[in-house]
Amino acid sequence: MAEDALRMIAESPKIDPPAAYTERSYVRSMAEYEVLYRRSIEQPEVFWSQVADELLWQSRGDTVISGSLPEFQFFPGSYINVCENCVDRFALNPATRNKVALFFEGEDGTRRTVTYLQLYDEVRRCANALSALGLKAGDVVCVYMQNLIETYVVLLACLRLGIVYNTVFAGFSAEALRERIVSSGAKAVVCANGSLRRGRVLRLKETVDDALTGVDRVEHVVVFRRLPDLETPMTPGRDHDYDTLLSAASTDCPPARLEANAPGLLIFTSGTTGKPKGIVHAGGGFLLGTYAYTKYQLDLRPEDVYWNTADIGWLTAHIFVLVGGLACGVTTVLYEGALDWPQPGRLYEVIQRYRVNKLFSAPTAYRMMLKHGEEVARRYDLSTLELLVSVGEPFNPEAWHWVRRVVGGGVAVINNTWGQTETGGTPLASLPGAVSMKPGSCGVPFFGHELDIVDRDGQPVPPGTPGYLVIRKPFPSLARDVYGDRQRYLQSYFSQIPGVYFTGDSAVRDEDGHFWVLGRVDDVINVSGHRISTMEMESSLIRHPAVVEAAVVGQSDEVRGQVPVAFVTLEKGYAPDDALVEALKQQVVHDIGSFARPARIYFVEAMPKTRSGKIIRRMLREILQTGEVRGDITGLEDWEIVERLVSELRDAAPGSG
After folding, report:
1. The pairing of beta strand 111-115 with beta strand 100-106
2. Full-model pTM
3. Whole-Å CA distances, 107 to 69, 148, 200, 248, 613
């Protein structure tokens, strides 16, 4: 990294949370955090036992943690049901049974409300319907649905029975869906017949039919008719109507007795090479960890109205809504569709309607707010917002300050977090009432999580020095396996530096103990012997007022080895002309040095992104090298963006900016 970037981290301002927020926080000062954190590292059994005490166990033994990385268990021989903790605990409590569990709003304006008691009845009916199809604990069910109440009902029913679910983003192609169905050995698929995205109808059932061509293992397909008027093909003997199945099912369904370390869910991550990895999370461990993350990092309380904008195809929705959020007994908003459709203020409109006070989204969404401008935000009453949480990509300081000032009224707490599909949560985050905010920082380690920054030999590096981010001790929500490929699990996460979990990310820890995650270890360009962080270049470009988003990748060069090539989306009102190209190149030269000057800058309408909002830079490299995307596309949110991007680059003049 250049000295300028390290200086920016060292000089980043500390912004204390407002006293009014701190007074209602679970942890109220940095001193209190440090005492509790030190105790949780020295005595992790005590900390996790205290978390476990707040949950409902079927039976609980004396052992809290057995083994160490990579072979470990939490509460081995103890039994706990995730669904019982997320639904029954509140549905059977007279004080909370009629409390709203889920507000739903569709892109087309459809609105519904479900209480905890209503959710309890629907989940039990669904569980009995799945059982009637012959599905049982240990079987895998693939769920291909968008953010719907019925999606949550299906997933909770699986958790109730011990069925291992595998959610697939309802925008993936038939090829991507087939890969996950086959790899997981799914016996059934549950899908919606269609979904809405920016006014378009996505025919999900037809995608399922295509995906199942030649796949014999799947015995049942259950179809929820989200769009009643949409013509939906049904295969006799295999396909079932969701409403018909549930209408015939009883509500008598006690939760299954499940060992805490038994597999609970599968989530696939896209690989840069080879097929996607099916990450296995233990049901009980996932509950234990996500409940703790959600309670302390979001300060979730019973009176909150909370909206996490993540799609259910992304693990964040499982961590902080399906399991963590419901286990905290809060009222949650579910939204189907694009956050700025059919008009730029749709996200604000939803916040205003439901009086949302805690919002969780990705930096991409926050930058979208900035792109649409302050005037749009000012049309709505956002005064209820107290906490704005971010995860997915580095949250650049410029957008951070804009969002806090405009969306958060200058007083909301911003909590920028870091986590991975494999961690099943966010090991790095602020405890929002205790830890001072630093724009761009990912906060501090969570209780019971021992993180470090090391060199190639695994030795700790001093504060202010970039290195590899590793985790030294197990925690409940850490992935337990790669489905069907134990060797890949061990190779991917535990072979690089013995004895630790290797995150694959580079990071810096500052003098105050805050961690700054810089990006993937392999997101580095070697230009004439100079190693340049792509994130550093992107941050430089984003500092220019014309730039909304930037992505930098390396392209082979006979003379310099590699040269940086930038992809940029522009603010409204800026023209992609030669003057702007030169201005952006000079911005990078000024911030980093002449060796980092982009060889080319392409102006694009949109970037290829995952469903979590991360820009897929590997696809940009492939398009540059071959003119097409040849690798794994299963993590892609919108294939049309890639097609448009390929066309734009094909039409661009050689050497153009």
Report:
1. antiparallel
2. 0.85
3. 44, 11, 10, 30, 19
